[in-house]
Amino acid sequence: MAHGIASQGKVTITVDEYSSNPTQAFTHYNINQSRFQPPHVHMVDPTPYDTPKPAGHTRFVCVSDTHSRTDGIQMPYGDVLLHTGDFTELGLPSEVKKFNDWLDNVCDIKS
């Protein structure tokens, strides 16, 4: 866990004291805060899926770890879709096809 501090165009990376022990980091931050949140991370409330996008803004839609469970996900309109983590449960070709079909349905790409 590291974060940057800008100083005169240079960035200094400071390393969290628990970087070498993720279990200890989770325990420390989980005990000392109401939920896991390192001190340099600022949580934001998610935007409701049906919120209109302001003019001149770029909307990033971020999802992760869907594990072949994309049925019923209400995806907001966005300009950029980021999917991180696992998108299949077992990595089966049928799961990859299902995910690809889902992407085809949620991504309204016009050429």
Automatic annotation (TrEMBL):
Organism domain of life: Eukaryota
Record-linked InterPro entries: Metallo-depent_PP-like (IPR029052), UPF0046_metallophosphoest (IPR051693)
PANTHER family to which the protein is assigned, alphabetical: METALLOPHOSPHOESTERASE, METALLOPHOSPHOESTERASE MPPED2
Phylogenetic lineage: Eukaryota, Metazoa, Chordata, Craniata, Vertebrata
Protein source organism: Oncorhynchus tshawytscha (Chinook salmon)
Name assigned to this protein: Metallophosphoesterase domain containing 2
Signal peptide: none
